[in-house]
Amino acid sequence: MHNMAVVLPKKSVSELKGSLHGAVVMPGDKDYDTGRRVWNGMIDRHPSLIAYCVDSGDVITSVNFARDHGLLTAVRSGGHNVAGNAVCDDGIVIDLSKMKRVVVDAASRTARAQAGLIWGELDRATQAFGLATTGGIVSRTGIAGLTLGGGIGWLMRKFGVTCDNLLAANIVTADGRLLAASAEENQDLFWGLRGGGGNFGIVTEFEYRLHQVGPMLAGTIYYPAARAQEILQFYRDYVAAIPDELTTMFIYMASSQMPSLSKLPAGSPAAAIHVCYAGSAEAGEKVLEPLREAVPPLEDTIRIMPYVELQAMLDSGAPPHQHNFWKSSYLADLSDESIGVLTDYAHTMTSPLTQFHLQHLQGQVRRVGEDEMAFSHRDALCALNIVTKWLDPREAERHIRWTREFEAAMRPYSTGGVYVNFLGEEGEDRVKAAYGSAKYEKLLKLKNKYDPTNFFRLNQNIRPAGNRSF
Ligand SMILES: Cc1cc2nc3c(=O)[nH]c(=O)nc-3n(C[C@H](O)[C@H](O)[C@H](O)COP(=O)(O)OP(=O)(O)OC[C@H]3O[C@@H](n4cnc5c(N)ncnc54)[C@H](O)[C@@H]3O)c2cc1C
C-alpha cells in the first residue's frame, strides 16, 4: 500500500513540532529506526514522520496535519498487530504508546484507560484493587488494537470478550473532532467500535467494566508430541462439558523452547494445554483432573498464581521482532478428520519456532447476541491460529508456503469466519469473512458516516463506496 511520496514543507513540519506536546521523529533522527519497528519482524517500513502523542490534543493536531497534507496515516498503540498496519511507508505514524494514564474507580468497578497502555500495565493498575477485565494472553499486547477487534483471552468464557466489557470510548475522527461513544452517545459508532477495529478514528481512551479477580489456578500441561492426535480427541470431548470458569487453549509447538521441562529434551516438539480457572482452586482442581489422566503429562506447571503473573505466563513464547506469518480461521467443531489434518501438519512444521493454537471459546462469549456489536462469529467452537515464525528472512518463502498449505487443508473444516485481529494483509474478502456480509454492510454504512474519505485505511479496511482504488 504505497502512497506517492509527499514532500512536506519544512515550515509545516516545524509548526507540527511546535504544537505537539510529544515528540516528532523523522528519518535521520537517532530514535527513528527503533521508532519504526513493530512486533512483527517482517514489517520494515519507513514513514516520513512519527508523531508521538501524549494527549488527545496531540492526536487531533496530528490527524489535522496528516489530512491537510494528504499523508497516508497509520495508527499505532501497542504495535503488536501481525499485519503491521501500525506503520507505513512515506506517510505518518500517529503513535499513542506514550498515552498511559489509567484511573480505576473501585466503587463502580470501572477503569478509564488511555489507548497507549499494554495489558500488563492495565492489569497491574486494576489488580491493585483486586479487579480485572478480559485481556489478551500476552501482556505486552496493546489494549487498543485488541479491544477494537474484540479481545479473546483468559477471562472471556466467564466475563465475555474484551469489547463486551467496553462501556465507552473517546475517539478522534478524520475531521479532527473528539467524540464520545457509549450506549448513550453515538450508539451507532459504539456498535462499530466493538469489533470494527481502527476504521472509524483514533480511540484515545477506553472505559472498561471490571470484575473481582483474585489469584487463580493457571499454567500448562505438556504432553508427548507423538500423542497429539489422541490429546486433541480428548480435548474435543473435554471442552464440551467444562464450566465457564475454565478457559483453555491447545497448542502444538515444533519446539518446546522450554529447557526446564524435565522429561522433555529442550528443542523437541510438544503438545500442550494452557489453562486458567477463574474460580475457587478447590473446584478448579477437580475440573482439571481429567487433563492429568487422559494421557500421562510430561510436565504440569499448573498452580495458583496472581492474575498479573498468569497474564504474562506466555510472554516468553512471543518475543518481538521475529518474522511472523499467521493464518487463522474459526472452527465449528473438531471432527476426527480435521484432527487428522492438524496432526499431519503438526508433524511437518518447517520452522522450530512455529506453533498452532486452538483457542476454545463458547461460554459467555456465545451468550451475547450476534447483532449487539460488530464483533462476530460468537457461535464458533474455537479459533485456529497457525503461528509460523522464523528468524532468517531468507527462509520466508518455504515457511509461508507451508502455512498456506496448512490453511488450505483446514479450509473444509472452517466456519468460513475469521477473527479480525488475527488477520494479516489478506484482502477485502477476508475482512468480509471476519464479519459476514450483513454486518459488513452495516459497517460500511458507519464508515460512510464517520470516515467517508477512508482516511483511516491502514487497518482491516471497510472500504467506503467511491474509495475502491485504495
Ligand atoms: C503475541 C501476540 C499475542 C496476541 N494475543 C491475543 C489475544 O490473546 N487475544 C486477542 O484478541 N488478540 C491477540 N493478539 C492480536 C491483537 O489483538 C492484535 O494484534 C491487536 O491489533 C494488537 O493491538 P495493538 O494496539 O498492540 O496493535 P497495533 O499494531 O498498535 O495496532 C493495530 C491496528 O489497530 C488499530 N489501532 C491501534 N490503536 C488504535 C487506536 N488507538 N485507535 C484506533 N485504532 C487503533 C490500527 O488499525 C492499527 O493498525 C495477539 C497478537 C500478538 C502479536
Describe the SSE topology.
Blueprint: H1 10-19, E1 24-25, H2 32-35, E2 49-52, H3 56-68, E3 73-76, E4 92-95, E5 102-105, E6 110-114, H4 119-127, E7 131-132, H5 143-149, H6 156-159, E8 166-172, E9 178-182, H7 187-193, E10 202-209, E11 211-212, E12 216-224, H8 228-239, E13 246-253, E14 270-277, H9 281-293, E15 299-300, E16 303-305, H10 307-311, E17 323-331, H11 336-346, E18 355-360, H12 364-367, E19 382-390, H13 396-410, H14 428-435, H15 437-450
Parallel strand pairs: 2-4, 3-4
Antiparallel strand pairs: 1-2, 5-6, 6-10, 7-11, 8-9, 8-10, 12-14, 12-15, 12-16, 13-14, 13-18, 17-19, 18-19
Helix pairs in contact: 8-11, 14-15
- Helix and strand content put the structural class at alpha+beta
Q: Please indicate the percent range of residues in DSSP E strands (runs of 2 or more).
A: 15-25%
Helix content: 25-40%
- Which consecutive residue ranges, at least 5 long each, have pLDDT under 50? none
- How many individual helices? 15
Distance between the termini: 8 Å
**Beta strands, count:** 19
Mean pLDDT: 95
